[in-house]
From TrEMBL, chain A:
Pfam name, any one: Sigma70_r2
Keywords assigned: Sigma factor, Transcription, Transcription regulation
Name the UniProt record assigns to this protein: RNA polymerase sigma 70
Keyword Transcription regulation recorded: yes
Taxonomic source organism: Pseudidiomarina atlantica
Family indicated by similarity: Belongs to the sigma-70 factor family. ECF subfamily.
Entry keyword Ribosomal protein: no
Top-rank taxon, per record: Bacteria
Annotated RNA polymerase sigma-70 region domain residues: 33-99
An example molecular function term from Gene Ontology annotations: DNA binding
Automatic annotation (TrEMBL), chain B:
Residue stretches spanning the membrane: 51-74
Domain of life: Bacteria
Entry keywords, A to Z: Membrane, Transmembrane, Transmembrane helix
The protein's name in its UniProt record: Uncharacterized protein
Organism lineage: Bacteria, Pseudomonadati, Pseudomonadota, Gammaproteobacteria, Alteromonadales
């Protein structure tokens, strides 16, 4: 069943052969998938977590989880899209356990940026450097909607928030980032 | 600075981030840790598969045996000749039950306890198989394949029972 669906979409998705091999237990194929996608997955989870060490741990967690569920991939979307969904869920699930996330979800502290010490890595791009200053939930909504391209409905579902909250958070993030950019 | 400029700048930065032109990268090799986890999982799989294969093999033997019994039974339903073989079956089952009890009693007497739920489940499955085959032998006592299967099931049950106590024994020795 899986093989048939994957074959149907194989002309669209360059990962199909590797996914099928990995689903059959081939670690070398899985490693090639890792090499192909690790940079984007790391960037996604880094932007959600805002921390190097946590992003590295989360990236490993994502690929270990992927090994467990890869045989459930049905080829109904591109593998990379599906992988990003898996990564988002693993990352959000872990971030929910963080104290900062819980506190800020309740208080939505507007002066969060002022509380941070900005020992930012010099090799970060401007946007990533500024995004670190956003409150975690605001940053998560901004990353998922503006960078990952999820619809507000999907962002709301992934983060367990209202659609209106997602829209408001994006507006807020953009306002804050534009303000900071104007002082760059 | 006009409001338009930071808006445009932000849109350009977002586009660059979407396209992966500028993105954070890990400072260390992440594959080694992942591979370590995966190899442990892969190493654990064959053991599960061997038990699965064992279960399927038992089930397949049962299906074949039942099919053979049914076919042979239709060919020669000589009920009068069954009595001695049914008595033999009863005796074999009793002997096996005694052997099983003696084995359990022996290990428990020297202080060893069964500890594995997984092996218990396997033992229960074997007991069920023995009962099924025995019932089929009552219906068709001349089926040689069924007698062989029954003997094989007896041996497997005793072997599995012993292995469970052996594992417990080694754990106890390690504790000592």
């Amino acid at each position: 069943m899986t093989a048939q669906v994957l074959t149907h979409n194989s002309f669209q998705d360059p990962d199909t052969d590797l996914v099928m091999a990995a689903a059959n237990g081939n670690i070398n194929a899985f490693q090639q998938l890792f090499e192909r996608h690790q940079r984007k997955i790391y960037a996604l989870v880094w932007r959600l977590a805002g921390d190097n060490a946590m992003a590295e741990d989360l990236t490993q967690e994502v690929f270990i989880k992927l090994w467990d569920v890869i045989d459930s991939f049905r080829g109904e979307s591109k593998f990379s899209t599906w992988l990003h969904t898996v990564a988002t869920r693993v990352a959000i699930s872990e971030l929910r356990k963080q104290r900062n996330w819980q506190q800020l979800q309740l208080t939505d502290a507007s002066d969060y940026a002022e509380q941070l010490s900005h020992d930012e890595a010099p090799d970060l791009g401007t946007l990533d450097r500024l995004m670190l200053r956003l409150p975690p939930q605001t940053r998560a909504v901004f990353v998922l909607h503006c960078i990952e391209g999820l619809r507000h409905e999907d962002v709301a579902q992934e983060l367990n928030i209202a659609v209106g909250t997602s829209k408001a958070q994006v507006h807020r993030a953009r306002t804050m980032l534009e303000e900071w950019l104007s002082h760059e | 600075m006009s409001k338009q400029v930071p808006q445009q700048s932000l849109d350009q930065l977002i586009t660059a981030a979407r396209e992966g032109d500028v993105q954070p990268t890990p400072s260390r090799d992440l594959w080694a840790g992942i591979e370590h986890h995966l190899q442990r999982r892969v190493a654990a799989k064959p053991q599960r598969r061997s038990w699965l294969a064992f279960t399927w093999a038992t089930a397949a033997c049962l299906v074949l045996a039942v099919g053979g019994v049914t076919f042979y039974g239709m060919q020669s339903p000589q009920l009068a000749q069954q009595a001695p073989q049914v008595a033999l079956l009863t005796m074999l089952n009793q002997q096996h039950e005694q052997q099983r009890q003696q084995l359990v009693t022996h290990y428990q007497t020297v202080g060893m306890q069964q500890s594995s739920d997984y092996v218990d489940a396997e033992l229960q499955q074997l007991r069920t198989s023995i009962q099924t085959v025995s019932a089929q032998l009552v219906a068709e006592p001349d089926n040689q394949a069924l007698w062989q299967l029954l003997q094989w099931l007896y041996d497997k049950e005793l072997e599995l029972l012993s292995s469970q106590f052996t594992v417990s024994n080694s754990k106890q020795l390690q504790q000592i």
